[in-house]
Sequence to fold (132 residues):
Amino acid sequence: MERKIERRFLYYLLLLLFVVFCGLFSRSGLVPLPVFVSVYAGDVLWALMVFLGLCIIRPKWKTSWIFLAAIVFSYAIEFSQFYHAPWIDGLRSARLGGLVLGFGFKFSDLVCYSIGIALGASIDRGLLKFIK
Fold:
């Protein structure tokens, strides 16, 4: 018998908001962070945010399906950075568009996304056991 998945909306929403805060804070320059952290933390947290957002949007999906959807979405956004047309570059020039779409392809972003989504899957599995 397949176990019913019960994700609690409030837990995931609060976690998502915390991750967004940490991601924006990591890019703010308000507190000096080690270079390695300031360069890569935002990308890891962005992918974690995507994973948590999918947990909220699709609360009954298995963790593995959310993992796969988050990877596909994140990688698609990164590969879309090879595409430059006035309309999409216009979106990227806005602060929110730049945060979501990025500016240029970097292989290191794919690594960061993979780490962030794997972290999300670990957190999700832990929360699902805790909630049970």
Summary: The mean pLDDT is 90. The radius of gyration is 16 Å. DSSP finds six helices and no strands in the chain. The helical segments are 9-28, 35-57, 63-79, 86-93, 95-101, 107-131.
